[in-house]
Amino acid sequence: MSLSIDMSDKRALVMGVANARSLGWAIAERLLEAGCQVGFSYQGERLKGELEKLTAGRPGTWIQQCDATSEEDLTALFQRAKDEFGELDFLVHAIGFAPRAAMEGRFLDTTAEDWNTAMNVSAYTLVSAARHAEPLLRDGGSIVSLTFQASQRVVPKYNVMGAAKAALEAATRYLAVELGERQIRVNTISAGPMRTIAARSIPAFATLYGSAAEVAPLGRNPTPEEVGNLGLFLLSDLSTGMTGQTVYVDSGASIATIKAQAPAAAEGKDR
Ligand code: NAP
């Protein structure tokens, strides 16, 4: 599909790209195609090589290590963004983590330590990154993050991550109100299941992946490209009237609880 959005005068910071399958990369690719200059942050040195490969030969890109739970790292990251770009138009938060033990066991048994880790990494970092971005963001800027429908419904084994995603969605609304004064918009994308590194840490992800596709009205899970397209839309001026929203790109799985059947087929069976 060809897109004709011109972002050649825009600058973005994308936080949380581990490799080419990352949802953060799916959005970044669309930004780069639109001519946007993009800086990236990665957490661990082991991921630096992946990001170097992905950004090689792409003008206007730069990368910087940042553990988003570290105020020191955030300060250094946004100073780099200021040095490179002066100002920012977009912030993409594509970060999530919960200790595996908290997702394997019962929700009832979640420890305070695991709860705090999941909330801190997966929800609070949106607030802290937005705070660091605020002085750099141009009026009319846009912030996008990624969530999952386990925030609204119980998804087996999602446990504390469901609570963290609910917090992220609530934070999106509070940030939207405070930043709305400057026409800065804050939205979160609720994506269907995707085979990424983070997904590997979800117990029984294969079952979740299969059952989401089965109930989805479109009969499949969305693609990373579809997530990227929604990201581009929410960052662009095409969506200037939207803020504080949780927007689904999940092939409709969130509206269904049992496998959808086309009416004609269902009627045929009843006869
Ligand atoms: P991913 O490729 O593994 O990306 C997750 C990123 O979060 C990684 O780059 C990871 O870095 C980073 N991260 C974790 N802790 C961090 C920290 N303290 N500081 C900075 N970065 C940190 O997986 P993904 O699926 O694309 O995840 C991106 C977002 O999409 C997450 O919010 C996730 O919950 C959300 N989402 C995913 C799905 C899905 O099915 N995959 C569906 C809906 C929403 P390290 O690898 O170094 O830890």
Short descriptors:
about 270 residues, alpha/beta, Rossmann fold, seven-stranded parallel sheet, 10 helices, about 15% strand, globular
Offer a quick outline of the entry.
The protein is an alpha/beta fold and 271 residues long. Helices cover 44% and strands 16% of the residues.
Any idea how many domains? Answer: 1
Q: What is the chain-wise order of helices and strands?
A: EHEHEHEHHEHEHHHEH
CATH architecture classification name: 3-Layer(aba) Sandwich
Q: Low-confidence segments, ≥5 residues, pLDDT <50?
A: none
Instruction: Name the structural class.
Output: alpha/beta
- Taken from the alpha-carbon principal axes, the silhouette is globular
Q: Work out the helicity level.
A: 40-55%
Report how far the terminal alpha carbons are from each other. Answer: 43 Å
How many extended strands?
A: 7
What percent strand?
A: 15-25%
Instruction: Please report the number of helical segments.
Output: 10
CATH level 1 class label: Alpha Beta
CATH topology type: Rossmann fold
> In angstroms, what is the radius of gyration?
19 Å
| Major sheet details | 7 strands, parallel
Strand order of the largest sheet: 3-2-1-4-5-6-7
Q: Give the mean pLDDT.
A: 94
Distinct small molecules bound, one entry per kind: NADP nicotinamide-adenine-dinucleotide phosphate
Name given to the CATH homologous superfamily: NAD(P)-binding Rossmann-like Domain
